[in-house]
Design brief:
Layout: H1 3-20, H2 26-33, H3 37-49, E1 53-57, E2 65-69, H4 71-91, H5 97-116
Helix pairs in contact: 1-3, 2-3
Length: about 140
């Protein structure tokens, strides 16, 4: 994921939290993005530096900050969403109403299922496999 895509993902998470009335924090953003807290903190700091997000002290828990879109952040997301809608419309040009509805249902189901999967791969049973000290890994192409 590029830096711009990661930044956009952070803004999307904050927007979704706002739309559903959920508080948005670094911890919640990290969990939703499937990244560790230091990575989420860096992305959030970048968005704050660019004037796209605002941090405010949580009145109920002074140890955490709440994240909110700034007007510039909202404008940026609106422009991105508008561009996406236009791209989708162009990509589906010539599709019948039934085809668009079927695609929307399938895509919605796909995204729902994808979101239920773990963000990171499950560890291998018994932990990671280690090579013995004298083992040499071949660099010859497999054929």
């Amino acid at each position: 994921m590029s830096a711009d895509e990661a930044l956009l993902a952070v803004l999307d998470v904050v927007e979704e939290d706002s739309d559903t009335g959920q508080p948005s924090t670094t911890t919640s953003a990290a969990a939703r993005l499937g990244v560790d807290q230091p990575r989420a903190s860096k992305l959030i700091a970048r968005a704050v530096d660019q004037g796209l997000l605002h941090r405010a002290a949580d009145q109920h828990d002074g140890r955490r900050s709440l994240l909110m879109l700034t007007p510039a952040g909202r404008d940026y997301l609106d422009a991105v969403h508008r561009h996406r809608r236009q791209a989708f419309a162009r990509a589906m040009q010539g599709w019948s109403r039934e085809q668009r509805e079927t695609f929307a249902e399938l895509l919605t189901d796909f995204v729902r299922r994808l979101e239920q999967l773990p963000a990171r791969p499950e560890p291998a049973p018994g932990g990671p496999r280690r090579r013995s000290a004298g083992t040499v890994r071949s660099t010859a192409p497999r054929g």
